[in-house]
Specification:
The protein has about 250 residues and is mainly α. The chain has helices spanning about 5, 10-25, 35-40, 45-55, 85-110, 110-130, 135-150, 150-165, 170-175, 185-200, 205-225, 240-245; strands spanning about 60-65, 70. The protein has a two-stranded antiparallel ribbon. Strand 1 (about 60-65) and strand 2 (about 70) form a beta hairpin.
């Protein structure tokens, strides 16, 4: 297995460390913007975002919302991120896998599956209404779709992707920068579109609805966590590449 390809953002983080040394940045200095880093290193914006999140978890940089990225004094007990997955790398994987799973599930979904999915959306709607930050309905909806595919391997794969998200320090770090949760209502609408496609047993429509949903998740998180400028560059998202591959 080519683990280097799976951890491309770690390579970008190493290139950023080299850039900091080469440019003579000192603790407290404001670094380049994400857009400037992406252009300098010739990589996508989402790879840069994942790399910055990793360095943030390690305590090497500090992201100040609306201000930028600042170099920190290296700590002797700094956290080293090794076995984690960048949030946007994870979303790209989910787009590829879960869109295909939704397409398959449309051909095999049962009435009981649809009823359970409706309950999951009600649970998600209640969590949004309560403002509790409870995402269990969201997770349950996606896992029910994988279960409806009637393929145990795919169910385990999707479950593992969601488990990795729940364990990820990088995912938690990303969400620590986001204070506006109005996007959750839009995601619920996306889920309803997926459910409608599954009820119609339309595989192509279900596949597209799921891909569009995860693209929306990625774009929203990219925008809301932008340390530099809310006028972000959508064409640099990793999910654009995933959409083109579907």
């Amino acid at each position: 297995m080519n683990t280097q390809a799976q951890r491309r953002y770690q390579d970008v983080a190493s290139e950023l460390r080299a850039l900091v040394r080469a440019e003579g940045f000192k603790p407290g200095d404001r670094l380049l913007t994400e857009r400037q880093i992406a252009l300098r290193l010739d990589v996508g914006r989402s790879l840069v975002r994942d790399a910055i999140i990793m360095l943030e978890v390690e305590g090497l940089v500090q992201v100040r919302q609306g201000s930028g990225i600042y170099l920190m004094e290296p700590a002797t007990d700094a956290t080293v991120v090794t076995d984690d997955i960048g949030p946007f790398e994870l979303l790209e994987a989910r787009m590829v896998i879960e869109s295909a799973v939704a397409g398959l599930a449309a051909a095999t979904v049962t009435k009981a599956d649809i009823t359970a999915m409706r309950d999951a959306l009600d649970q998600e709607r209640q969590g949004i209404s309560d403002g509790s930050g409870d995402y269990s309905g969201d997770r349950r909806f996606h896992l029910l779709i994988a279960e409806a595919s009637q393929n145990g391997v795919l169910l385990r794969t999707v479950t593992e992707l969601w488990d990795r998200r729940s364990r990820s320090r990088m995912w938690a770090q990303l969400h620590s920068r986001i204070f506006d949760d109005t996007y959750r209502a839009r995601w619920l609408d996306d889920h309803q579109d997926v459910l409608d496609a599954l009820r119609a047993r339309d595989s192509a429509r279900a596949r597209k609805a799921m891909a569009d949903h995860i693209a929306n998740v990625s774009a929203t998180l990219m925008q809301l966590s932008d340390p530099d400028d809310p006028g972000f560059d959508g064409y640099l998202f990793s999910t654009t590449r995933a959409l083109q591959a579907l």
